[in-house]
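Fic family protein
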Amino acid sequence: MFEQINEKKQQLDSKRPLPKYTVQSLREKLFLEWTYNSNAIEGNTLTLQETKVVLEGITVGGKTLREHLEIINHQKAIQYVEEIVQTQESLSEWQIKNLHRLVLKGIDDAYAGVYRNQQVFISGAVHTPPSPVHIPEQMEKLMQWYKEEAQQLHPVERGAMLHALFVGIHPFIDGNGRTSHLLLNLELMKSGYPPVIIRVENRLAYYSALDQAHTTHEYHAFIQLVVKEVEASLGLYLSAVTMT
């Protein structure tokens, strides 16, 4: 499953250090698309161009304050992901809560970075997240899995599994989807991969693969979906550095 990814990653690594301004422009492109798609999947109606404008500090008429905050907050959360990658800190519940706090800042401060105390249901999904009383225990198990079994996995599989397991627990009232995307890319970026974009046009396949994983504990389809997006991001980087 990972042969092509490994080959592309080796090709990219062989070209390091990558041209400074090429990397900078790729980073800006991917971070904008990541912010747009991650929010669009969750129902934000700002277009890609409107997202870019909001990040430049301009208000878009006819859009809600929440939609503006979702864009600004997500960009700050990405910056936090970059900080964690640079300092090489190991993943912790504290980091996850901090990421979520950034995602919901100014939107729902009472629940920002706080595990839910109510039962929730995922619209359109068969899977029902665990009762709130089980969340601390489930999150503790997730972190234990991450420290032990997950370290034996390929980085792409580890990131995909972390994303899927986290969403299955659904530990927060809101913002779980955005937080899970941040965790996926945090894991990839730690291992030298570019961030991946789960695109809004692939939303149906994304939700279907996640629901299958949560109801059958069969994660292959979801991992394969992430593999495809990793290949796309690596391909983008390789085409850019080959042109320079």
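thats it. Residues 14-243 form a domain with the Fic-like fold fold (CATH 1.10.3290.10). The radius of gyration is 18 Å. bye
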